[in-house]
Amino acid sequence: MGIANESHLDTIGRLKEELDALKTATKIELSERQKEVLANLECWGEKKSYAEIAEAMHISADGFQAHIHQIKKVLNISGADGKSLLMAYSKSNGLKKYATLNEETS
To answer: In the chain, where are the structural domains located?
Structure first.
């Protein structure tokens, strides 16, 4: 019975190592600017359009859209509910601290 338990423990240990390696390999890395875009979207996305947020950030609407496109690509987000999914991602990952827009700037 002891040998079987040791075998299971070895298997569990090996699987845990593989899972940790997989988590590290699939870790999502966003640039500081991408985090800022997501944070501002989280804060203002319910009230403002992409173009309005871009204007408040002093970047072009096309530049903002390019950031959104790249972020969606990294996060594997597509479809009509992309904006709400991006906002949810920002909220669930604590990105609000990267927001640069406040009541006065927007």
So the answer is: 1-28, 32-98
Longest dimension (CA), the chain: 69
Residue 25 burial (CB count, 10 A): 7
Which residue, chain included where needed, has tokens 């827009």?
101
Report the candidate in 54, 73, 76 with the shortest Cα–Cα distance to residue 64.
54
Is 32-98 assigned to CATH 1.10.10? Answer: yes
Amino acid at 73: K
> What is the identity of the amino acid at 74?
V
Residues 55-100 pLDDT 10s: 999 999 999 999 999 999 998 888 888 999 999 999 999 999 999 9
- This prediction has a pTM of 0.72
